């Protein structure tokens, strides 16, 4: 049997797949947190327009963040797969900075909601 590029770097490809699955789990957790926050909010007896709007924004923001995370995880997985086979390396610095900024923005939105609305 002839050895392919994929079979030469089995450990690296398996690590790449594990990393991809970890990003997918993270995206699902982010989406779940948004739904949890909204569900808990709308189960409370208060009926304020501002609180309802912020709870809805938190839910939409976490859904969007989860979808963006899945998109970037897939992009990075495909790029790393190609880089493993060609033995080149490009760090994910820009994507990491972007995701950190987006997640910090979400935390600020959650903080605003819990400090000023509830």
Descriptive notes:
It comes from Oceanobacillus luteolus. It is a multi-pass membrane protein. This protein is mainly alpha-helical and about 120 residues long. It has one domain. About 85% of the residues lie in helices and about 0% in strands. It has 4 helices and no strands. It has helices spanning about 5-10, 10-40, 50-85, 95-115. The chain is elongated, with a radius of gyration of 19 Å. The relative contact order is 0.14.
SSE arrangement, N to C: HHHH
The N- and C-terminal alpha carbons lie at a distance of 65 Å
Structural class: mainly alpha
Annotation field: number of helices: 4
| Range of strand content | under 5%
**Rg result:** 19 Å
* Overall 3D shape: elongated
**What number of domains?**
1
Q: What's the β-strand tally?
A: 0
**Could you name the ranges where pLDDT drops below 50 across 5 or more consecutive residues?**
none
Helix content: over 70%
Q: What do the pLDDT scores average to?
A: 83
Strand count, sense and barrel status of the largest sheet are: none
